[in-house]
């Protein structure tokens, strides 16, 4: 069976510096147009099967949201393939994307910015459906489906005639979920869907998302910086750093036996109410380097307490460690250099 | 520095006592009782966590202590006793003296709490100029010392840099450095790490804890994040709709919460050690604070609600170090 989503060697670069005139510079007596590029995503490959939840975690600037937005084709990828049910959409135009969007929808982080304040809730939820059917769907059917969807996500009929500002953050996120569900997608790309919510509301939305997965057989690509949320929701997890995927694996494996020093640092840095949890202390100093100027060799070597000479010259690639775990770290070849 | 040394000896002494504080905002659409009868105290050398969700009133408590409430807000009543002095009745001049010198504040957003038009050095120097009688070279030396203390290398050079030349984590270090400059007795930190990444958060929390301990200061840590509080605070106070619902030593409260709201907050956090298919959720949402129900504010979301909860407001009952405001508190071992 073809995977719901298959991404291969995805690269995303952004040119910065504005127009030719903005970039114009005189250096050494010559007119030059330096080309500065942010390398946001550097060769990410991942697969999401039907009904599976795959999470991407990492800190700000690691490229996880860019991956999500590129897959949703908000951006055009610089290189690489994006296959939705086997169909490569990486170079599709807006028109060609329209039918694909009935298979893939997105939920956004900010429930205040992602809903049009001038549209009523019923119009927000019905819009993808009307767009997909090119307005040929019967009004009555669309109206009924909208009400059903609102009921399914925990809102009621009278909410349909209201505007987004009349709702709380959690309720708005429910509206966003109803909108995504309106075209019966198989895949939902959720970019930090609960980060803007209070913890009690966060639990409600996570429960709703999991119920919907069971009910509709949804697959999620779940982007988050919160490890405890990811542990709760994901079947498989990918850890990103500076645009690279440094480790992937099944949830239990990744949390119980993380291999990459960055994953280990991330896990030991996360605060927890559970005091008894044994902690490996890999403490990071310094900050993430700029994506304008990637370090040579391993992307993590500038902050890695275990880095050695080879990390400077050779960029590690993802290696299979068995049990579905893949790690990009030279320590896997030279385990005697590890601290433990 | 002498104070820092004696801090241990006087550890049982209360530095700040807030009693029945009411801070209301009189808006056109009704009175918002953002803080409505909050009491707690902070001992010398202690870190006190003030926890709750948005709208709980936790930030307003912090601002009230510093007298930073602007109209339509007003401190209606209550006592804010800091180091034996009632700040609620202190004049503006006296408060300006205290702010920065005796009580410092660290805000959530390191992007907006520094002035983009002045160098870091100027902003640090201002604090010392206003609150100490050091001369210019002493001030410079102190700035370098404190900046190095918070983990910024080449401090003398970095004093000449502007805030935009620092990353978010570095800026928060600068803000903490400014807060610690005049060796305050109390630091109020309002969501100090919420805007930061988890590895940077770990660095900053560690730094703050060390700075507080080394200076013998106390801290009020205002946050929505129970995990952060459980790692940092000695005591916690849980707020809901402007009222204290529970209070006590951190470990004790997290292990055996008495109030159903505290229990609900703890259960809402996905816990990697005990993964369940569904999270226990608190149903519904925080009520509109202008139209609070009669009786207990938590009644519509509470699994233990009874008739009395809709009639009368539960008072805050203290037993030993713990206190809770609930008609049907959870007993040891009860989960709902």
Short description:
The complex is a heterodimer of chains A (340) and B (336). Helix content of chain A is 30%, strand content 22%.
What is the approximate shape of chain B? Answer: globular
Average predicted local confidence, pLDDT of chain B: 88
Task: Output the CATH class name of the domain at 5-21 and 36-93 and 238-337 in chain A.
Answer: Alpha Beta
Largest interface: A-B, 39 and 42 residues
SSE string of chain B: HEEEHEEHEHHHHEHEHEEHHHEE
CATH topology of the domain at 5-21 and 36-93 and 238-337 in chain A: Rossmann fold
Strand line-up in the sheet with most strands of chain B: 6-7-8-3-9-10-12-11
The N- to C-terminal Cα distance of chain A equals 41 Å
Q: Measured on Cα atoms, how large is the radius of gyration of chain B?
A: 21 Å
- Identify low-pLDDT runs of chain B: 1-12
Write the CATH fold name of the domain at 2-102 and 184-270 and 278-324 in chain B.
Answer: Rossmann fold
CATH architecture of the domain at 5-21 and 36-93 and 238-337 in chain A: 3-Layer(aba) Sandwich
Uncertain runs of chain A with pLDDT below 50, 5 residues or more?
A: none
Q: Helix and strand layout, with pairings?
A:
The complex is a heterodimer of chains A (340) and B (336).
Chain A: E1 5-16, H1 20-23, E2 25-27, E3 30-32, E4 36-48, E5 53-57, H2 64-71, E6 79-84, E7 87-88, H3 94-100, E8 104-107, H4 121-132, H5 139-152, H6 169-181, E9 187-191, H7 199-216, E10 219-224, H8 227-233, E11 236-241, E12 244-250, H9 251-256, H10 261-269, H11 309-313, E13 319-320, E14 326-327
Helix pairs in contact in A: 4-5, 4-6, 5-6, 6-7
Chain B: H1 2-6, E1 14-27, E2 30-43, E3 47-51, H2 58-65, E4 73-82, E5 85-86, H3 92-98, E6 103-106, H4 120-131, H5 136-149, H6 155-158, H7 168-181, E7 186-190, H8 198-215, E8 218-223, H9 226-232, E9 235-240, E10 243-249, H10 250-255, H11 260-268, H12 307-311, E11 317-319, E12 322-324
């Amino acid at each position: 069976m073809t995977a719901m989503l298959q991404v291969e060697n995805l690269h995303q670069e952004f040119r910065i510096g504005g127009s030719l005139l903005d970039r114009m510079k005189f250096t050494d007596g010559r007119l030059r147009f330096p080309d500065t590029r942010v390398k946001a995503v550097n060769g990410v490959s991942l697969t999401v099967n039907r009904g599976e939840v795959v999470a991407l975690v990492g800190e700000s600037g690691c490229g996880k949201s860019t991956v999500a937005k590129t897959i949703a084709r908000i951006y055009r990828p610089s290189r690489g393939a994006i296959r939705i049910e086997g169909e490569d959409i990486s170079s599709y135009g807006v028109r060609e994307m329209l039918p694909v969007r009935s298979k893939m929808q997105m939920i956004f982080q900010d429930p205040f910015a992602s809903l049009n304040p001038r549209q009523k809730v019923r119009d927000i939820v019905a819009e993808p459906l009307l767009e997909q059917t090119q307005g040929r769907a019967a009004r009555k059917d669309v109206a009924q489906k909208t009400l059903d969807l609102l009921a399914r996500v925990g809102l009621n009929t009278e909410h349909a005639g209201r505007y987004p500002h009349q709702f709380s953050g959690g309720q708005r996120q429910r509206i966003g979920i109803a909108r995504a569900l309106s075209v019966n997608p198989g895949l939902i790309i959720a970019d930090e869907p609960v980060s803007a919510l209070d913890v009690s509301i966060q639990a409600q939305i996570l429960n709703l998302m999991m119920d919907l997965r069971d009910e509709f057989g949804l697959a999620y690509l779940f982007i988050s910086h919160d490890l405890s949320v990811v542990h709760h929701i994901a079947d498989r997890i990918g850890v990103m750093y500076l645009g690279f995927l440094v480790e992937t694996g099944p949830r239990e494996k990744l949390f119980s036996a993380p291999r990459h020093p960055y994953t280990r640092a991330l896990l030991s840095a996360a605060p927890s109410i559970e005091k008894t949890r044994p902690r490996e202390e890999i403490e990071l100093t310094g900050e993430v380097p700029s994506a304008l100027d990637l370090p040579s060799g391993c992307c993590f070597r500038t902050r890695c307490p275990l880095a050695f000479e080879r990390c400077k010259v050779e960029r590690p690639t993802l290696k299979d460690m068995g049990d579905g775990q893949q790690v990009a770290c030279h320590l896997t070849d030279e385990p005697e250099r590890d601290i433990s | 520095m002498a104070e820092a040394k004696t801090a241990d000896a006087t550890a049982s002494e209360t530095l700040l006592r807030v009693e029945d504080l009411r801070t209301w905002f009189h808006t056109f659409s009704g009175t918002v009782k953002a803080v409505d009868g909050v009491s707690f105290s902070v001992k010398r050398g202690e870190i006190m966590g003030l926890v709750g969700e948005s709208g709980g009133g936790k930030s307003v408590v912090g601002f009230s202590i510093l007298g930073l409430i602007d109209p339509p807000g007003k401190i209606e009543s209550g006592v804010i006793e800091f180091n034996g002095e009632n700040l609620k009745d202190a004049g503006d001049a006296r408060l300006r003296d205290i702010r920065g010198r005796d009580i410092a504040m660290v805000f959530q957003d390191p992007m907006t709490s520094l002035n983009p038009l002045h160098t870091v050095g100027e902003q640090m120097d201002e604090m010392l100029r206003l609150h100490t009688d050091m001369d210019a070279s002493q001030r410079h030396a102190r700035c370098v010392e404190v900046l190095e203390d918070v983990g910024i290398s080449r401090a003398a050079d970095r004093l000449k840099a502007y805030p935009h030349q620092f990353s978010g984590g570095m800026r928060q270090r600068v803000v903490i450095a400014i807060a610690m400059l005049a060796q305050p007795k109390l630091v109020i930190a309002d969501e100090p790490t919420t805007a930061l990444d988890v590895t940077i958060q770990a660095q900053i929390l560690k730094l703050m804890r060390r700075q507080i301990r080394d200076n013998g200061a106390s801290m009020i840590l205002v946050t929505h994040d129970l995990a952060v509080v459980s790692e940092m605070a000695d005591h916690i106070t849980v707020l809901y709709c402007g009222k204290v619902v529970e209070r006590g030593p951190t470990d004790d409260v997290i292990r055996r919460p008495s109030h159903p709201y505290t229990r609900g907050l703890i259960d809402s956090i996905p816990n990697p050690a005990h993964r369940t298919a569904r999270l226990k959720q608190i149903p519904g949402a925080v009520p509109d604070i202008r139209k609070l129900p009669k009786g207990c504010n938590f009644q519509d979301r509470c699994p233990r609600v009874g008739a009395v909860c809709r009639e009368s407001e539960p008072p805050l009952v203290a037993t030993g170090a713990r206190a809770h405001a609930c008609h049907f508190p959870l007993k040891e071992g009860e989960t709902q």
